[in-house]
From TrEMBL:
Superkingdom of source: Bacteria
Ranges annotated as spanning the membrane: none
Stated name of the protein: ABC transporter ATP-binding protein
ABC transporter domain residues: 25-275
Biased composition range(s): Low complexity: 1-12
Stretches for region Disordered: 1-23
Length: 279
């Protein structure tokens, strides 16, 4: 009998098909060098991400944990095609994202949404909450085309992130940190993304607010069956939210596996150190 054909080249031809065997995200040998300051001499580089490979399937939540400077955010930026890899590739639904230009690249930007660490910096202070949440709906001309449609969607999204409807007319300056991060989450969910990347989504918030936002993300991830890449230096948060975890250290993945296994029986010395540091 003929050997089954590889799925990846087929999927390349039809990026929007829901072929279940193709992971939503397939990262292979991803490497990113940054030039070091010229004063250090010559053309030396810093390898921020070093030969990173992993897959993320539809409906799964994957954590990338590691201390500051380990390459987590750079990995996220490579997945978003905001940086060009030095080597390796990122495939989303079987399509190598480095091949995308124009409309397909814009479609990728709609399908992959991000929640960043600092909701004070990521929300435009000139706009109302309503306008901020609508922004991706305008930018991507999704099905919510009319003004009334967009308003209805904003109301729905505010409810989803547990914010009262009257906040729609406020500006970010008049919201608490936790409320701002809920607005950022609503904005990210507005265009129904296939993948949500959360890069340290609670690190800038007060401890009591952190746990409430994590509870929200956990509920959304279950209710909406979100596929989520959750970047954090907070191991308990990763444990609560994610099925699988990657441990990054100086640009490398030193350990990967199901969250419970990695946290209960860490195989790598660095993972043991990280866990020992958790209060
Ligand atoms: P993390 O998110 O895990 O804290 P980052 O991915 O932000 O780590 O950074 C990894 C390494 O790459 C760090 O040493 C950082 O200083 C460096 N780095 C990140 N972005 C740049 C850049 N644009 N130019 C130069 N160095 C960078
Ligand atoms: Mg970071």
């Amino acid at each position: 009998a003929a050997a089954p054909r590889a799925t990846a080249p087929q999927a390349d031809r039809n990026q929007d098909s829901d072929t279940p065997r193709v992971p939503l995200l397939d990262v292979r040998g991803l490497t990113k060098d940054f030039p070091l300051a010229r004063t250090t001499g010559g053309s030396r580089t810093l390898r921020a991400v070093d030969n990173v490979s992993f897959t993320l399937n539809h409906g799964e939540a994957l954590a990338i944990v590691g201390e500051s400077g380990s390459g987590k955010s750079t990995t996220a930026r490579l997945v978003l095609a905001l940086e060009k890899p030095t080597a390796g590739s990122v495939h989303i639904n079987g399509t190598n994202i480095s091949t995308l230009r124009g409309a397909p690249l814009r479609a990728l930007r709609r399908r992959v949404q991000t929640v960043y660490q600092n909701p004070f910096a990521s929300l435009d202070p000139r706009f109302t909450v309503s306008r901020i949440i609508e922004e991706p709906l305008r930018a991507f001309r999704t099905d919510t085309a009319t003004r009334a449609d967009r308003r209805a969607r904003v109301t729905e999204l505010l409810d989803l992130v547990e914010l009262p409807p009257h906040l729609a007319t406020r500006h970010p300056a008049h919201l608490s940190g936790g409320q701002r991060q809920r607005v950022a989450i609503a904005r990210a969910l507005a265009p129904n993304p296939e993948l949500l990347i959360c890069d340290e989504p609670v690190s800038a918030l007060d401890a009591s607010v952190q746990s409430r936002i994590l509870t929200l993300l956990s509920r959304l991830s279950t209710d909406l069956n979100l596929t989520c890449l959750f970047i954090t230096h907070d191991l308990p948060a990763a444990r609560d939210l994610c099925d699988h975890v990657l441990v990054m250290h100086t640009g490398h993945i030193v350990e990967a596996g199901p969250t419970d296994r990695v946290f209960e029986q860490p195989e790598h010395e660095y993972t043991r150190e990280l866990l020992a540091a958790v209060p």
